[in-house]
UniProtKB/TrEMBL annotation:
<keyword id="KW-1133">Transmembrane helix</keyword>
<dbReference type="GO" id="GO:0009252">
    <property type="term" value="P:peptidoglycan biosynthetic process"/>
</dbReference>
<dbReference type="InterPro" id="IPR023346">
    <property type="entry name" value="Lysozyme-like_dom_sf"/>
</dbReference>
<dbReference type="InterPro" id="IPR036950">
    <property type="entry name" value="PBP_transglycosylase"/>
</dbReference>
<keyword id="KW-0961">Cell wall biogenesis/degradation</keyword>
<feature type="compositionally biased region" description="Basic residues">
    <location>
        <begin position="1"/>
        <end position="11"/>
    </location>
</feature>
<dbReference type="InterPro" id="IPR001264">
    <property type="entry name" value="Glyco_trans_51"/>
</dbReference>
<keyword id="KW-0808">Transferase</keyword>
<feature type="region of interest" description="Disordered">
    <location>
        <begin position="1"/>
        <end position="31"/>
    </location>
</feature>
<keyword id="KW-1003">Cell membrane</keyword>
<keyword id="KW-0573">Peptidoglycan synthesis</keyword>
<feature type="transmembrane region" description="Helical">
    <location>
        <begin position="44"/>
        <end position="62"/>
    </location>
</feature>
<keyword id="KW-0997">Cell inner membrane</keyword>
<feature type="compositionally biased region" description="Polar residues">
    <location>
        <begin position="12"/>
        <end position="30"/>
    </location>
</feature>
<keyword id="KW-0133">Cell shape</keyword>
<keyword id="KW-0328">Glycosyltransferase</keyword>
<dbReference type="GO" id="GO:0016763">
    <property type="term" value="F:pentosyltransferase activity"/>
</dbReference>
């Protein structure tokens, strides 16, 4: 009888074609939702970076409105804002606001890093919420692009926005914008509207005392009445005037010598 020879299959290091690179998922295998998340993340980052930059360039020549003003417009609430150039606003108010809110305004590049470092140390060592390190430029960034309220996220966003604003706009323009969008009461925005509402006169005609009362009302614009200040408010205004007299050349980047 003839023997039938059966050939044994030869071992090979090659994997079947159907399983080649099976452990490496292709880009096509990624979930559609993941690609969408990435796409919208990039779009969001672009909006956060590019949109404020474009708007800031526009605001160099166009009077802006604040996010709080936009929110009131959206709710059909009353808004009083009458834009005035910085030359049409009393220099007394400029001095009082810088002295009260940011005495290093002409020196820093949008962020007062030394003051911020002190507040961070206070937070770490004493557990108190940082306060007093917000520059006028940071407040302008918040008013133009962000929201009110205490938030570490918002505070963190203020820093790059303030640096950008300081890099694009002059100090004089930053102050001009700030004085025209700052809140000075329910629906009252800007120096002209505030001067008319509280003292019945134009912002260019404010006296030293009136300007000091307006400036020291800024930390609590809904709770302080510049026309009828409390005893505590009067003391703050008096302190503001005393500091102005001994301030030195801290206003030169805004006021003409």
């Amino acid at each position: 009888m003839k023997r039938t020879c059966v050939k044994k299959p030869q071992k090979s290091g090659k994997q079947p074609s159907g399983t080649k690179n099976a452990s490496k998922p292709s880009n096509k295998a990624q979930p559609v939702t993941l690609r969408r998340v990435r796409r919208w993340t990039f779009r969001g980052l672009a909006a956060v970076i590019i949109l404020p930059l474009v708007l800031t360039v526009i605001y160099a020549v166009v009077p802006p409105v604040s996010t709080l003003m936009l929110a009131r417009y959206a709710q059909l609430l009353w808004v009083d804002r009458q834009w005035r150039s910085i030359d049409e606003i009393s220099p007394h108010l400029v001095r009082s606001v810088i002295t009260s809110e940011d005495s290093s305004f002409c020196e820093h590049g949008g962020v007062d890093w030394s003051a911020l470092e002190k507040q961070i140390d206070t937070l770490v060592n004493e557990g108190e919420a940082p306060r007093g390190a917000s520059t006028l430029t940071m407040q302008t960034a918040k008013n133009l692009f962000l929201w009110n309220g205490r938030s570490y996220i918002r505070k963190g966003l203020e820093l790059p926005l303030a640096l950008m604003i300081d890099g694009v706009l002059t100090k004089r323009r930053i102050m001009e914008i700030y004085l025209n969008i700052a809140e000075w009461g329910e629906g009252i925005f800007g120096a002209e509207a505030a001067a008319q509402a509280w003292f019945g006169k134009s912002a260019k005609d404010l006296t030293r005392v009136e300007a000091a009362r307006l400036a020291t009302a800024l930390p609590n614009p809904l709770g302080r009445n510049p026309a009828k200040p409390s005893s505590g408010h009067r003391k703050l205004a008096a302190t503001n005037l005393a500091r102005i007299r001994s301030a030195g050349p801290i206003f030169d980047c805004v006021l003409k010598p």
